[in-house]
Amino acid sequence: MAGRNPTPRCPSPRLARPGWPTPGQLPSGRSYDGLVPGHLVTPPPAATPDAPSPLRAGSRLPRWARGLADIVAAPSPAVMRRIALAGIIASAAIILTGAAVRLSQSGLGCPDWPQCTAGHLVAGGDTGDSLIHRWVEFGNRLVTVAIFVIALIVCVAAWRFRPGPDGRRRKDLVWLAAAQPGAIVVQAVLGGIVVLTKLNPVWVSVHFLASAALVAAAVALYVRCQEPAGPARPLVRPEVRLLSLAVVGTIALMLAAGTVVTGTGPLAGARSAPRYSLPLTGVTQLHADIGWLLSGLVIALIVAMRLSAAPRRAVRLGWVLAGLILAQGVVGYSQYFSGLPAGLVWVHETGATAIWVTVLLLPYALRDRGQLAQ
């Protein structure tokens, strides 16, 4: 336009060329008339040989994996609690998937260990058992691998967890977390012994009880990671706490008796599996008698907690435990009088796992260490 100085225009980013002037290089009196400042073209900074490429740093991992790594590397108390809860769920899943293998008569679907069959890592080859049994057993082994990965994440998170004001690592949490991958390794070895002994009922019982111990460690980590270190302050009389521990011991005894019932009855893992040389009616009656004893102890514990002004959370856990035991009794008698259908027995196993987790939480609710700031 006549009468106006020609003003250099900012080119399209696609047409940018080296040598275009930057704002600091314009002669005095010149300006980018009418252009948005954000559209100015400036040459990129010169790359140095030692500078890491932004495309290379961390780009090989998916975004979700990088986010998970960041969370595990520096977990907050709230995040650590969720990770510990994942450990409980994974530990309980071992019991339920193992029960599915046994109740579907798939215990010898993979007759070799650590491979499924001789010369086959996966469920291949001809084992004399049906294909569905092979894949049920092999699927259980795959689930164990996935659960082991979760246990490793729990362990790393506990190692990196710094909840106190001094920023120190909590050794009690590290030991409880390390017990989870360690117990799964022990479980894998026990599983191999179970397979190689053709489902010897003693080893099957030990295998199940080791899973129960793993759940106990996971529950302890879940509770302790929410508390500061230091001695606990009792919230009830010592007699009430002893009664709660007696309930825990009785349920552990009931779980052990349940493994004997299963190892004596028709659902021992395979039709050819050896059984306990015990009368099924007798061991079933013993299991039921322990259940009646447990019911009386739980009622006594609820009454004692109410009379001793126990925390509401402990009383609620007591009522939840009583309801679970009542439902478990109904399922137990139903499965016995209906001929032990596998589906109903699996529901019974699920109820037993829920009872075990609930009763493990109860003694912790009867004492206090305070709460970590979330």
Short structural summary:
The protein is mainly alpha-helical.
Write a concise keyword list for the protein shown above.
flat; two-stranded antiparallel sheet; 374 residues; single chain; 2 domains; mainly alpha
What is the β-strand count? 2
Structural class: mainly alpha
Number of helices: 9
* Strand order in space, largest sheet: 1-2
- Rounded to an integer in angstroms, the radius of gyration calculated over CA atoms is 31 Å
Extract low-pLDDT stretches.
10-18, 29-58
The outline comes out as flat
Number of domains: 2
SSE string? HHHHHEHHHHE
- Determine the fraction of residues in helical runs and give it as a percent range: 55-70%
| Termini gap | 66 Å
Mean pLDDT: 83
The main pleated sheet reads as: 2 strands, antiparallel
Strand content: under 5%
Tell me about this structure:
With 374 residues, this protein is an all-alpha fold. It folds into 2 domains: 63-230, no CATH class; 233-368. It is built from 9 helices and 2 strands. A two-stranded antiparallel sheet has the order 1-2. The longest helix is centred in the middle third of the chain and has 30 residues, at 131-160. The termini are far apart.
